[in-house]
Specification:
38% of the residues lie in helices and 17% in strands. It is α/β, with parallel strands linked by helices. A hairpin with a 4-residue loop joins strand 5 (147-150) and strand 6.
C-alpha cells in the first residue's frame, strides 16, 4: 500500500504556534498559500489544517488553498456539532468536486469551546455515539440519493446532495481520518472511519492498538474497506544525530519559558494523557522518541518528537510502517523552514526517491 505523506499547517489567529516564527501576516492567504505550495514542491501530498473555535474556519481555508494549488490535498479537521451532517456533506462534496477530488477530512470529537457556537456536550459515550451517526450519515449523503435517517442525534428526510464528491476506484468519497484512544473512540474507528490516527507513542503501544482495532473490525462487523492507520508526530531532524539532539534539548529549554507551546486542554483527552504518561518511562523511548517536550509543551503532536539525522528518523518511521502505518502527518517549527528541510532530507528516504532528485525551493 502506498504511503500518504502530509505536513501540518496550524491555521491559527495568534502567531508563534509551538515556536513558529511570529511573522506579520502569518495566517494571511498569501502566507498559507506559500506553505501549501511548498508542500507541493518538496514531496508532500498535502497538509492537515488544524481546527477549533477561535481559529479560522477550516473548510474555508481548505477551499482557498485548493483554489491556489494544483496537487495539494487539504486534510480539513472538522467537528460534529459545529457542522450538521447534511450541511457539511454538501459543503465538503462541493469542495471535493471543485478541487478534482483532493479533499481529505479529519473528524475531531475532542473537547472545544462548544457553547460559543451553540453546541453542547454529554459524556464520552454520548460524544462518540454522535460522531458515529455523523460519519454514517455523511457517507450515505455522499453516495446515495433521497436519504432518510432518524438517529438519536441527527436526522434528515428525503435528502440528496446535488454536488457529488469525486469517486475513483478505492475512493468513493473523501477519505475520513479519525483520532481517539478511548474504548468508545476505537469502536467508532473500527466500524466507521477510513484512517485511525495515532499520536507519537512507542511502537509497542501502537502495535497493541492496531491489533485491538483489527480484532474490533471483525467483532463489530465492518462494512467498508479495511481500516488504515496513520501517525501524527513531530520530527526534528538535522544533518547529524548529535546536532539534532543538541537542538532538541535547547528547544525544550525554551519551551519551559514560552507559553506559546502550552495547551491547557492537553490533560483531558485519553490519547493525550497516554502521551504525557510516557515521560515516566524515560526521556527517550524506542530508538529516538523524545518524551521530554511533553513536560512543557502543548498536547498532541507537540508532546513527543522523533529526533535525529534523516537516516535516524527514517529508520524509526519505517518501523512504524512495518506495524501497518501508511499515513504520516509530520511537522516541526518553524513550519516554513521545516517543510523544506524535512521534505528534501527525510521524505526521499521513505519513498525511495534519490536525495539529489528532491526538488529545490
Amino acid at each position: 500500500m502506498s504511503l500518504e505523506l502530509l505536513w501540518y499547517i496550524p491555521n491559527q489567529v495568534q502567531p508563534g504556534h509551538r515556536g513558529d516564527d511570529a511573522t506579520a501576516g502569518h495566517n494571511s492567504l498569501d502566507r498559507l498559500t506559500d506553505l501549501a505550495r511548498l508542500t507541493e514542491q518538496h514531496g508532500w501530498g498535502g497538509a492537515l489544517l488544524g481546527t477549533g473555535w477561535g481559529r479560522p474556519d477550516t473548510l474555508t481555508v481548505a477551499t482557498a488553498l485548493a483554489a491556489r494549488t494544483t496537487t495539494f490535498q487539504p486534510l480539513a479537521a472538522i467537528r460534529p456539532g459545529y457542522w450538521q451532517p447534511a450541511h457539511f456533506a454538501s459543503a465538503a462534496s462541493t469542495l471535493d468536486q471543485l478541487s478534482d477530488g483532493r479533499l481529505l477530512i479529519n473528524i475531531v470529537s475532542g473537547q472545544d469551546n462548544l457553547p460559543a457556537y451553540g453546541d453542547s456536550e454529554g459524556d464520552q459515550a454520548q460524544r462518540y455515539a454522535r460522531t458515529k451517526e455523523f460519519l454514517q450519515l455523511v457517507r450515505r449523503l455522499w453516495t446515495e440519493e433521497n436519504v432518510t435517517f432518524t438517529g438519536e442525534h441527527f436526522h434528515v428526510t428525503d435528502s440528496t446532495v446535488a454536488t457529488r464528491p469525486v469517486a475513483r476506484p478505492g475512493r468513493p468519497h473523501p477519505r475520513l481520518y479519525f483520532g481517539g484512544a478511548s474504548p468508545a473512540a476505537e469502536q467508532v474507528a473500527a466500524t466507521d472511519a477510513d484512517v485511525q490516527l495515532f499520536w507519537g507513542e512507542p511502537r509497542d503501544g501502537i502495535a497493541e492498538r492496531i491489533d485491538r482495532l483489527d480484532k474490533l473490525q471483525q467483532e463489530l462487523g465492518r462494512e467498508h474497506q479495511p481500516l488504515e492507520y496513520g501517525l501524527r508526530i513531530t520530527t526534528l531532524i538535522r544533518d547529524t544525530t548529535e546536532q539534532a539532539w543538541t537542538d532538541a534539548e535547547a528547544k525544550v529549554e525554551r519551551m519551559a519559558e514560552d507559553n506559546n507551546f502550552r495547551d491547557e486542554r492537553r490533560f483531558k483527552a485519553v490519547g493525550q494523557q497516554r502521551l504525557l504518561d510516557l515521560a515516566a518511562r524515560g526521556d527517550v523511548l524506542d530508538d529516538n522518541l523524545y518524551t521530554a517536550p511533553g513536560k512543557h509543551g502543548g498536547g498532541g503532536a507537540g508532546t513527543t518528537w522523533l529526533v535525529g539525522s534523516p537516516d535516524d528518523v527514517a529508520k524509526s518511521l519505517r518501523k512504524y510502517q512495518d506495524l501497518g502505518i501508511t499515513h504520516f502527518i509530520l511537522s516541526d517549527t518553524p513550519y516554513r523552514e521545516e517543510i523544506i528541510r524535512v521534505g528534501d532530507q527525510l521524505l526521499p528516504l521513505l519513498t525511495g526517491q534519490p536525495l539529489d532528485a528532491a526538488p529545490a525551493e
